[in-house]
Structures are given as structure tokens and as C-alpha cells.
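Quick one, C-alpha cells below. Sequence please?
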């Protein structure tokens, strides 16, 4: 029976709530085991909001996690003071600890994949944690140099050349190397993780109208086009003007769309897939997915949060694990 690990996310947000709601969907089937890294008091309080329809055990023992036969094993990561709806130093500390232990559960062979609940960059900063998000943290823990923030849905898959970068700094991050590295990681992931033998990729331009032949910026001519020409594969197309590309739904013609910066692809992606979209870190030796939304502090503790994206993150993790196992023999 496969085991999947979940993190609690920011304990002052909706993370614990959407975890329990997802468990209510998947655990009654008794086809999987789940490990949740979460403060026990937070889990118990959340059970007052979301009634658990499954058996569980709470432990502080790593050996119990390894041998537990309960559908859900909650690993207690310490007592936490909760301030519902606000980012705090405490919530940053516990979300960070949850991620590190979840990663360890995979490297120790306990779990097949990790599904991470939303974290707060503000909470991380308050706790003195230097990482801007899951992607960079997990890449560091996995000692991975080439990785790509990727978003998954049944409608389309999209990936980013730059990640959490202020718009004024994006252009400096768009180099031939960063584009080629992104293409390489996405191509390999599509083959290994999604069983697409010959991936067909589209590349978006950086500037309006993809630069209009250099009249609205030269990055397309000087950087993006030369990078595309260097790729040996013939299945790389672009650069496309982003507005016309999404307006005409051209993403339907490609296995993945590579954008230059965060909002360029995340705005259309979330408009189309907000309830079902999933964040995936391509290029890691481990499988990690998460919902494509944030902590939703404004509705925390109110039993109003939808678990649709979290449930989708679990389903995508299942698919990727299955494909990786098949492709690695």
C-alpha cells in the first residue's frame, strides 16, 4: 500500500482544513496510507471544524510513522500557538519544519510523494527563513540545481523561466541559459512524469507583441529566439505574443507552455483552473505537488475553504509516481 505525505502548511491559514477535507475524500477507500506533519493541537482543533471520517493515530515517534497501519498517521511536530488568519513567526517556523520532515519521509523511503499545503512568505520572513517559497526550499533540500516551477491541469501544463522575481528584475533573469535549462527540465519531466514520448513545447515572448520585431524590446531577438534555435528538438515553437496566445487558446496545441515570468502564465492559468490547478516542482528527484492557491487567511478557521485543488494535487502526485515507477522499471 502506497504512502503519501502531507504538510500542514501555514497553521494560521486554511492548510490544516483542506488537508482534512482531502483525507475525507481519499482515506475511506483504504487504498492509501497518509502521513501528516502537523502540530497535534492544530490537528485536533481542525477536527472540531472538519469531522474526520477515518481512523488516525497521533505520534511523536519516527518508528511509529514507518510501521503505522492506520489510514492516517499524524506526526506531532510540537505544540503551536495559533493566531487564526494572520502570518506569524510561529506559523512560519512550523510550516518550515513540516516541509523538512515531509522531505525526510521520502528520502527515508516511507513515502512516495509529498503534497504541500499553502505557506506564507511573510510568515517565513518573520521566522527568519530565507527561502521565498516551496520550490526553492525543496530544490535546496534535494540538492537540485536545475528545477522548474510548473503548473498542472487537464486544460494545459505551463512552466516558468523565472519564479519569484519582481517585475523590474525579470528581464535580467531571461538568459539563453535559463531558457535552455527550463526547456531541458520540462522536456525530461514530460517524458518521465507524464509519459509523453516527444513533447511539443511553446515558448512565450517577454514583451508585448513578443517585441514587435524589436520595436517593443529586444529580448525576443537577442535572447529567446537564439535559445530556441539551439535546442536540438524540432518540437519547440515560439516566441508567441502572450495575449494572442491565450486569447486564441493556442495552449491546446502543445504539451506544455513555457512563460518568462510569474503573472504572464499564472493569471490565465488560474482563471481557467483555479479550483483544479496544481503546482508541481519539475526536476526534483522527489515528487512534490501542491494546490495552486495561497493560505487564504481571510477565511481560515471558518470551514469555508474548498479542497478541490488539494485533492487534485494528490491525484497528480499519484499519476506522476505511477509514471516514474513505470519509466524507471
Amino acid at each position: 500500500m502506497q504512502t503519501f505525505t502531507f504538510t500542514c502548511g501555514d497553521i494560521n491559514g486554511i492548510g490544516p482544513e483542506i488537508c482534512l477535507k482531502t483525507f475525507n475524500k481519499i482515506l475511506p477507500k483504504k487504498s492509501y496510507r497518509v502521513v501528516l506533519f502537523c502540530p497535534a493541537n492544530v490537528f485536533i482543533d481542525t477536527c472540531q471544524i472538519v469531522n474526520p471520517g477515518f481512523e488516525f493515530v497521533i505520534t511523536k515517534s519516527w518508528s511509529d510513522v514507518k510501521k503505522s497501519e492506520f489510514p492516517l498517521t499524524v506526526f506531532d511536530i510540537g505544540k503551536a500557538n495559533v493566531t487564526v488568519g494572520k502570518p506569524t513567526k510561529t506559523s512560519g517556523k512550523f510550516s518550515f519544519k513540516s516541509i523538512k520532515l515531509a522531505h525526510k519521509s521520502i528520502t527515508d523511503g516511507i513515502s512516495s510523494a509529498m503534497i504541500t499545503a499553502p505557506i506564507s512568505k511573510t510568515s517565513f520572513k518573520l521566522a527568519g527563513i530565507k527561502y521565498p517559497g516551496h520550490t526553492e526550499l525543496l530544490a535546496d533540500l534535494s540538492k537540485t540545481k536545475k528545477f522548474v516551477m510548473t503548473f498542472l491541469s487537464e486544460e494545459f501544463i505551463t512552466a516558468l523561466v523565472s519564479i519569484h522575481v519582481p517585475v523590474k528584475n525579470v528581464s535580467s533573469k531571461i538568459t539563453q541559459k535559463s531558457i535552455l535549462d527550463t526547456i531541458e527540465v520540462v522536456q525530461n519531466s514530460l517524458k518521465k512524469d507524464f509519459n509523453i514520448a516527444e513533447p511539443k513545447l511553446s515558448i512565450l515572448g517577454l514583451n508585448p507583441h513578443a517585441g514587435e520585431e524589436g520595436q517593443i524590446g529586444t529580448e525576443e531577438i537577442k535572447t529567446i529566439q537564439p535559445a530556441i534555435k539551439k535546442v536540438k528538438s524540432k518540437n519547440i515553437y515560439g516566441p508567441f505574443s502572450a495575449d494572442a496566445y491565450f486569447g486564441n487558446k493556442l495552449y491546446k496545441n502543445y504539451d506544455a507552455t513555457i512563460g518568462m515570468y510569474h503573472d504572464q502564465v499564472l493569471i490565465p492559468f488560474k482563471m481557467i483552473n483555479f479550483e483544479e490547478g496544481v503546482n508541481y516542482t519539475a526536476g526534483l528527484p522527489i515528487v512534490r505537488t501542491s494546490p495552486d492557491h495561497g493560505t487564504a487567511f481571510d477565511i481560515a478557521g471558518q470551514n469555508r475553504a474548498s479542497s478541490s485543488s488539494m485533492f487534485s494535487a494528490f491525484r497528480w502526485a499519484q499519476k506522476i509516481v505511477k509514471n516514474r515507477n513505470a519509466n524507471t522499471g
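Residues 308-327 form the longest helix (20 residues). The chain has two domains: 1-144+307-329, 147-283.
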